[in-house]
What does this fold into?
Amino acid sequence: MGLFCLFAVIQCAYALYFFIRIFSLPTVPGNNQKINKQAQIHPVSIIICAKNEAANLKKNLPCVLAQRYGNTDGKAMYEVIVVNDSSDDDTGKVLIELGKQYDRLRIVDIASDEVKNIPGKKYALSRGVAIASYDRLLLTDADCAPESDQWLEKMVAPLAAGKQIVCGYGGYEYRPGLLNAFVRWETMHTFLQYSTYAMAGLPYMAVGRNMACTKKVLLAAQQSDVWHALPSGDDDLLVSIAGNGNNTAIVCDEQAFTYTDAKINLADWARQKQRHLSTGKYYKSTIKQLLGAYGISHAGLWFCFFVLLFSHYCAPVLMIMGLRCLIYWLIWLKTDMKLRERNEVYLFPLFDIGWMVYNFVFFPYITWKNKKHWK
It folds into this structure.
């Protein structure tokens, strides 16, 4: 019973110190009109790394190239750089055709026999950054589509206010089914974590599907030894290496979201998560300790709950667990509403328990194993 109470206290303290901040996260950045006017005079390079993404580029790239972001004369103030990383499908052909339609599209081709001094996606990213014409960068993926033609403007607005890193939301398209619902809930839960950590002055990650930064801070992060540890994870590692409470901003504006199709089977999703979670072991010690305390207390709480439920402590255990769940489920509901997700509230208890199983399954990748390929 004592251990159960300790886990409950840690869970509630975590929610009331970090997660509760989601209620004060504006869905539109403050002083938006003033910032947008400033942002329009600063050109931006959008960088997309692509490997065998012909179908996704054909579908999504026109939306990226159609952003409304220009000067007072109506001239577009951005370029889109797509790095074709040794694709063996029709990616090259798709890019050539789109290049005929959009003069602001720039293409970088990486040959299959090209010597790479940086692993995986990070090499493709470095090639894109090397030719970027502008000091402000917006990063996304080939399988992502911006929610609106205001995406670029909204995401770079904090850079005009002096920030160096901007973390946005990259969601997954709604599809019927329990796996899709859990994927969207887990993505929402991840945003809740990294956004409220950043609001508390402890930024530690972002999603490469939707983030902005200055070229200066990205080049500085690339000099870190940690940067070369994985073929992917450039998003998390950039924030972990260079982010702090003063230079990092969170954008939670529905016009600034990006969306991609979620994996439709469990095996594909598991492989994707193995890659995503491999970065966590390279976070700063304080962040790892805080995230570890959250994960361990979460699993321990549910384990003790099911054990004590059949003991003479049943009544107080139900009361304590009820209070904890009320706090968490209200916070998740608020986050769900801010992100315009369609998570069914009645599934929250199932996903709460499911997240405990999720951590056990992926524990090796969280703690010591690395995913060796980004595609």
